[in-house]
Design brief:
The protein folds into four domains: 7-155 and 285-470, Rossmann fold, CATH 3.40.50; 158-263, no CATH class; 488-610 and 776-797, no CATH class; 630-761. The protein is 41% helix and 18% strand. The chain has 23 helices and 27 strands. Strand 13 (327-331), helix 13 (347-356) and strand 14 (362-368) form a beta-alpha-beta unit.
Amino acid sequence: MEDFEKLGAFYLGRRYDLETDELTDELTLYDSKDLTTHGVIIGMTGSGKTGLGIGLIEEAALDRVPVIAVDPKGDLGNLLLTFPNLAPEDFEPWIDPAVALESGKTPAEQAAATAQLWRDGLGKWDQTPARIERLRAAAAVRILTPGSTVGTPVSVLKTFAIDPALKSDGDALRERIQSTVQSLLTLLDIDADPLTSREHILLSNILDDCWSRGASLSLPELIAAVQNPPVTRVGVLELETFYPSAERFELAMRINNLLAAPGFAVWTQGVPLNIADLLYTESGQPRVTILSIAHLGDAERMFFVTALLAELVSWMRLQSGTGSLRALFYMDEVFGYLPPVSNPPCKPLMLTLLKQARAYGLGLVLATQNPVDLDYKALSNIGTWMIGRLQTRRDIDRIRSGLEAAAGAGNLEGRMLDAALAGMRKRCFLLHNVHDTRPEIFHTRWVMSYLAGPLTADAIRRLTPQASDAVRESLPDIPEQETRAVSTQEQAPLLDPSIRQFFVSLETAGAPDASEIYAPWLLVAANIRYSRVRPPVESERRLLLVVPPASDGKALVWERAAELAATLEDLSVQPPEGAQFTAVPAMLSKSKQLEALGNRIRRWLRERYALTMFRSATHKCYSDAGESEGEFRVRLQELGNQQRDSKIAVLRKRYESRLTRLTGRLERANRRVEKEGDQARAHRLDTAVTFGTAILGALLGRKTVSATSANRVGSAIRKAGRSREQSADVDRARAAAAAVQEEIDTLSAEFDEEIAQLDDAYDATAETLRRLQIAAKLSDIEVAVIAIAWVPMRRSEARASDSPA
């Protein structure tokens, strides 16, 4: 395992020595949990800010930490360009022919040169193709384009809804209402103050009434509510006095114009703006979700970012507390979203996250060119600063004041800051982390993603080839039934008055391509209670189902039953205007026959709706009732990360004490080697002088050796013996130092091995879970309603008893 592959640590680069202007071999590793106190990346254009941000996201993905990244420039989409083979043909589709032409090469030649450049760059930083493969396997990377069908759009304005759990949190509910209204008014180009704007106050009252009842609100319903609000008084004033109906109509018209605008439909299509879905796949694999907003105008950007942050705050409040990094929110070029003076609608939400997200394991990293772009209160809540080359003295002064406001900044000398920032090279950054004892200068590592520059619309289309399929609300493919003409009538058939009838709307059926021909299906409303001691289960599930009759009308096709995403109260008891209806099969036309289905329905519900639960042998726990396998794996990963970080802290403490003792012994051994070496050199010099004097006396004196000369030679021989002893002392000292160094190497290997075992033990995506099927008792299944549901049919399948729209 490479030295930088430490569990829970991000490999940012290597330390850089400003005095020698050289890159050192000392790694810059950053503890992932330190990002819970948030980070900021500051540097002028060309400083390497984007490369550092992409490298940080890569490290988070490798550590199985999900990331939501807002991309106003279009650079972060390069995270999808990872090529483990580093082959020229991988790079060629992303080579700009104009750039190749300028360099005098064909696109193929430029691709070969780029592939070699990336291979050499990664090799210089000890990164192998295997690491790129691990990155691709660790997280699912995708790019979304809100407000555009170039990629996969994001559904933001289809409905205004909140998680029901937020109803009990008054502060969270009020905060969500204010941010939602503010962002909508921004999109309408209405500059509204929450305390003085009638538009803001009226819309806030409408949403408050709706969400307090646990209901959702579509944009057409909002328009109707503006004209006929659910409140009659605002404060102490009558509604007509506070906001006359004629003026409310003007607001309704502005919202209607938004609804009628040609580009509005895309804001209601695509993947839902759901934070859990942005962070994890259905199977529980972490995601890196890139939200590209480069194509949007300023008002649309502000609207979307506000809506996203509102969802993020709501999601955060529903999480349990943790000291580990649960998720990362990264925003490139935060200019205009957190200004020091003005108060855009997204600013209060971002400040809330900076102040409170730490307790929930949510880390924020904001990138900007100028520190003056950021609010002072925001800077004081950021614990990690990565500062690159700055443009002006004013920027440096702003950085210094911000660092002084941040906790633990007292160990940063002003002279060091000035010297560092004045001479900062490209891709070099000053890293100040309040969790460390002192700051350092580091050079960012080579990123694994190919940096092709801002992605064009065509590039995004190529990276999301299924984007059009993702927004198509297609219905299930139903096997073809025997074709026969549809016999319809303009009024619903007359039935026994004791048979209840409900009408499923096109919206409830989720079918924009449906006709206005309705077919009778069996409607079942049921409550199922699951109760068990082991595994511990005490849960209840409410179901609203429709079951189609067979084409001959003599039986029910249970395998084609569909669950409606609605309650019985949401269904209409009045037939839609202008609808046509098919005939009712005999088996559904008599109340006694419907009542007789009760026992059959209970047995079918017991079999089909058995509760699926999972057990983790690693953590010795069960999933919750209704929790999917993916959701359970997400919870296990978060639990594992907490246990991992705790055990790493214990390991570090244990190994640190042993390493400190060994390091002390090594320093003493090295000093001993130096001392013995100095003495040995002195003895060798003294011996050489003595030998030289004795030999010269013998050679230049009388031909017979005098007694003095003999004594000198004897003294020289004795000194030579002591010199050999001294050399042996040096060898022994070196051997002792080598033995200590070997102990240190062994200790490091033991630590790395234990860390590697932790990595395998807490990878929730790799664990095999035990699946349990828990069937409810027949006595715990209540069939509350058996009725007729009139279901709209597909236009392409206008056949009796066919699939519902």
